[in-house]
Amino acid sequence: MAPDSVTIEPATADALDEVWAIEQTCFSAPWTRKMLEAELSGNPFANFLLAKCPDPLSGSLVLAGYFCFWILFEEVRLMNLAVLPPFRRQGVATRLVCSALRTGLERGANRAMLEVRVSNQGALTLYDRLGFRRMATRTRYYANPEEDAALMEMAPLKLGTLFKPPGEIHEPGGMTTVHGRV
Q: Distance between CA 145 and CA 169 in Å, rounded?
């Protein structure tokens, strides 16, 4: 899949069913539908981005992943990032995270924080490549299975060397879709 074929757009409440299906597919301890609904429509700090990619069979755009993040004053809190298995390792997660970081920068954030399972090597590699650094370990942070979390931070907030867009499209609602390899 070509990197410029990934479309990043803000989520609306009508995407809830699809987001919940991705949540259930990707996590051993998924958020409930009510939790996702509250984040999508009730939390003033929450932001949701959707990644749409061409279906390999039909060519039509399908929801490949989503990202929930909060912007709390000067901080971007990376909450839930999920990409369906057929679309992994193709730059979808990188595009989602870079779009969130850009939104944070545009709104005056100066750092980003996240927790990630210590066994999630793919996510740890992604965040390391983007410039996050490990700050601490949170013992038994996750359940099902019980596991430690790596606490990671990016301060100051930056887009890093992986984010070199050849072109951008500014979309309705103030979102920026970056086309190119990230």
A: 41
